[in-house]
Structure formats: structure tokens, C-alpha cells
Amino acid sequence: MDRTAYFNNAATTFPKPEEVYSFIDKYYRESGVNSGRGQNNSASKLTQDTRYLMLELFHCPAKKVVFTPSATEAINIILQGLPISDNYNIYVSPFEHNAVTRVLNYLQGLYKLNIITLSVNEKGLAYDLEKTNYQFAENKPNIVIISHASNVCGVVAPIKDICAMSHQYGSINVIDMCQTAGLIDTDLSSNIYDFVVFAGHKTLYATFGIAGFISNGDIKLKPLIYGGTGIDSANPNVPDTIPERYEIGSQNIMAIAGLYAALNWIKKTGIDRIYAKEKENHNKLISVLSKYNNIKIITPSVATETVGVVSCIFDGYSSDNIGQILSEQGAEVRTGLHCAPSAHRFLGTYPAGTVRFSVSYFNTDDDFAKLRQALDYIDENS
Question: 23, 273, 324, 363: most buried by Cβ count inside 10 Å?
């Protein structure tokens, strides 16, 4: 069977580094037991070592890592656990995922919240820091939530600048790094970042089943789930300590093993090298797509930092039709709204959505050749 040309890496990176596959298999066969629930401490040590690698990656050894089964659960723990009150001003980027917007929609049913969109230039898709400064001065931010990179158009937010501004007002800052963790070298040691969410199966090159958030530990969240933690069993309440307060039930040690191996691969390969390779593949993708007159590319201005995510509209075809044709021709993409309808409203592609192409470190020349063949087929038969 021919290898599919995989351009759906914003959903999940594939393939993974070979070290991830081999370590998971070896570890789970030899030591796949429960962390913190027995005398064998190999699983506990692996979990702790993985936390250290996460903090090392983000240059923030003093912070805390909480593991969850998914980034969506991590976002729910944070947003539902915060001490929110009526008339809170909550700022979001125009590119937020449903994992954020649906939680905020739920919270709006409980509180009278002011949801305000951060200012972004509609033409170049660059964040307007001057206007953002005015926004914060006019309506003091209580919470700021930013997707570090859009999963629709790839634009990267200047989180350091925005969080530094909002921090002056005492805002709680939440960053979604699902599209950038392990890809863009980011120093999270500053206290301007209160919570940063990550997903193992995306740019961290690990598997499904492991995600979480990094916390400075200053804000005590109300737990989302209650139950056993493996420690302090006589206490009828969940522990106050982090991460135990938010890691309820048995941890997915197989997925943690995959993250451990992936973090070691990132460390060995070099995060800057990984990002440079993705940029190279991103440029190849833009070059291929630009050759076709029937494709409209939705992309930020050249001056705006991006990751390897590109949305397109094909003349005369719905995104779903193009996705089906590409799949039949051996190229995998994602179509529709990509769980981010707010982004498509901002970009003017709602409700039809787009065809999304997204690259990774592992895309090959053969992938791009197969993509060209598929696009040629569409062009010739239009």
C-alpha cells in the first residue's frame, strides 16, 4: 500500500519519531504499571522525569506540570476552576478553538461576562498591539486567553507582549500552545503566564492520551473531577498540592512514556532545527499551492510569524468535495471549520470552511510530489 501524503499535522502530527514507537513498546512491555499505586516506582519516576523534561523545554523549572488526557480537559479545569464573577472582562483572540469558546459559552450561562476580541488586522492578520493597549485601558482585563498559533491560518500571536500588558492590570493569562509546544522555543519562566496548555499528539510529537497545562502555582483552581489520587487517601477532600489536585484517577502511563520519548527526541534534535524544517516544508507547501489559479490561499502577511498551517478555498468546489478528491488521490488534509468557527467568521470563510493543509518536520519530497499530482488532477478536471 502506498504511503499517504499526510498534510493534516495540525490535527495530529504523523508519523512520530521512531524513538517514540520503540520506547512505548519496550516500556509498556517491561514496566507498564500504575504511577504512585504500588511499590514499583518505575512509573512514578518516568512520570516525574517527563515533568522535568517539559519544564526544561519551556525554561521554567520553578513551575508545575499537570497531566490530563486531553488539552480540552486541561482548558476546562482552568476556565471552570477560576474564581470568575459577574462583569468579568475576558479577552480572547479571534482564532480560538471550540475547546475555549464552548467553555466560555457555558460560563456565560452562569455569569454576566463581557467577552472581548483582541484586535487583529483583518488584512495582514497581525495583532494590533497599540489597539490592544487601548482596549485594556478602556476595559480592564480580568482574564486573557490566547491561542499561540491559529489552527486555521497559522498566525502566531505575540503572547509575550500581550501578556506583559494585561499583567499590569492583574489579569489571569491563559495560553493555548497546542499548535506550538515543542515547535517554537518559548520561555515560560515569567509570571506573566499563569496557565499554558499543551497537547502531546500535536507539535510535541507524542501520542494521543497525554496533554495538560503548566501552572505557576499561584492560583488555586476548583477541581473539575473528584476521586483518588494515590496519595493522602484518608483525606475526604482532594489534596491541595499540585499536580495531585488535578490528576484524578490512574494516569495513562503508556502515553506518558510516549511523551517522555518525544521530549528526548526534541532535545536531541533541537527545537530550533525542528522549527526550521517545518518552515522549509511550509514554504514548499505555499510554493506548490501558489502554482494553481483555482486555489485561493488564506495566509498572514509575510511580516507575520506563522506555523505550517495553510487554509485554502478552491474555485467551484466545497471544501468537503476537495477533501474527498485529495483523499482518493492519496493526500490527506482536513476540511470544514476545524473546530474553530470563530476563526472562520473572522476570516470570512464561515460557514463553508476551508481546505486546510498542515506540514510537520517529517514531510518528504515524495509527499509534495504526490500532492502536486493530486492538485494537477483537480485542475485538469475542473
Answer: 363
- Distance from the first to the final alpha carbon of the chain: 28
- Could you give the CA distance from residue 119 to residue 276 in angstroms, rounded to a whole number? 29
Residue 40 confidence class, pLDDT cut points 50, 70, 90 = low
The residue ranking higher by pLDDT, 299 or 18, is: 18
Letter string b/e over residues 41-77, b meaning 16 or more CB atoms within 10 A of that residue's CB: eebbebbeebbebbbebbebeebbbbbbbbbbbbbbb
Q: Is the pLDDT of residue 90 over 80?
A: yes
5-16+270-380 and 18-269: identical CATH topology: no
CATH 3.20.20.70 fits 5-16+270-380, yes or no: no
Cα-based distances in Å from 246 to 52, 65, 173, 356? 18, 10, 19, 34
Amino acid letter at 22?
A: S
User: pTM for this one?
Assistant: 0.96
Q: How many CB atoms sit inside 10 A of residue 11's CB?
A: 17
Domain ranges of the chain: 5-16+270-380, 18-269
Radius of gyration of the chain (CA): 21
